[in-house]
Amino acid sequence: MTEPIHLTSREPVVTGPEMLASLVPPPQFDGATFDSYRSDDAYPSQAEAKELLQRFAGRGAPAKKAGFFSRAKKEPDMKPGVYLDGGFGVGKTHLLASIYHAMPARRKYFGSFIEYTALVGALGYKNTVDLLRGADLLCIDEFELDDPGDTMVMTRLLGELVTSGTRLAATSNTPPNALGEGRFAAQDFLREIHAMSDSFQTIRIDGVDFRQRALDGKAVVLDDAAYQRELLATEGTASDDAFADVVRHLAKVHPSRYIRLIDGVSMVGLRDVQVLTDQSEALRFVAFVDRVYDAQVPIIATGTSLDQVFAEEMLGGGYRKKYLRAISRLNALTHSAQLQSAP
């Protein structure tokens, strides 16, 4: 292994054009297709959603020809936008990436809600509209329903793009009742984007969190000796930081740049994890976890188990959905680290 680096020593800068060029599916969805989407037979809505989205992407089954005494059945027209409504971990992002890859478009973009709002922040609203206008497809993953200001900006932006012919596909951070279960948020989504609601067709996807199917629901915690062994055994470059130092550093870096914090990193090491009780710190950590998960970088950690990193009162508050999604991802990433190091 190479000498571990420290995330806290990185102060990344990302330009507007670089941000635009980065609007593609995360690495783990580079090869996502409708064929590789594994629908669960226990939840028929998954196969139904897949079929509808194939039609939206222009890759549906060929229309049946009319018989001698019958007319061909006409498929209903689809709206310019689709909204994938379901709990986290049921494959919404896989399907969203499948749309991106399947649609024969000259210009198409795929990004999380925070990446699009960061683009507006970096370039200004008008410049962002000018850059995106004429795009054939815009995919928005994890539309943030709990930020009225950003939601208003995005609704206005999407409205301008749809009038110029852009098609839209979106998911949102739906509020779960419990880990692995979803309370569907279609009405919340349509209410928040009321000016655009007629442009979206809601496609519901039931299911359980796939990340929990093979996990015991707990993040992996290492003692100091095991942590050091994992660092030394890492192929490539590992990061090694005290958890508290990373949390403080995240406050100095715009969330749109978190992905650059882990450039070239093959393992993230967090020492002495502590329970987060400050809402701002917790939300920044959630955004960081999202980027680490997108990049599929395993995590090793000591201290408090990462599935208990958010204080109990936070899990009962308005951002509960974000915290539970982050816990699901942290569980998966710590187990991934163990699988990577297994002989």
Task: Summarize the structure in words.
With 343 residues, this protein is of the alpha/beta class. Helix content is 41%, strand content 14%. It has 14 helices and eight strands. The chain has helices at residues 16-21, 44-56, 92-102, 113-123, 125-132, 148-163, 186-192, 210-213, 224-233, 243-250, 258-261, 279-294, 312-315, 320-341; strands at residues 81-85, 108-112, 137-143, 167-172, 200-204, 237-242, 265-273, 299-303. A five-stranded parallel sheet has the order 2-3-4-1-5, sandwiched between helices. Strands 6-7-8 form a three-stranded parallel sheet. Strand 3, helix 6 (148-163) and strand 4 (167-172) form a beta-alpha-beta unit. Helix 12 packs across helix 14 (320-341). The protein is globular, with a radius of gyration of 21 Å. It starts with 15 loop residues before the first helix and ends with a helix.
List the helices and strands and how they pair.
Elements: H1 16-21, H2 44-56, E1 81-85, H3 92-102, E2 108-112, H4 113-123, H5 125-132, E3 137-143, H6 148-163, E4 167-172, H7 186-192, E5 200-204, H8 210-213, H9 224-233, E6 237-242, H10 243-250, H11 258-261, E7 265-273, H12 279-294, E8 299-303, H13 312-315, H14 320-341
Parallel strand pairs: 1-4, 1-5, 2-3, 3-4, 6-7, 7-8
Helix pairs in contact: 4-5, 12-14
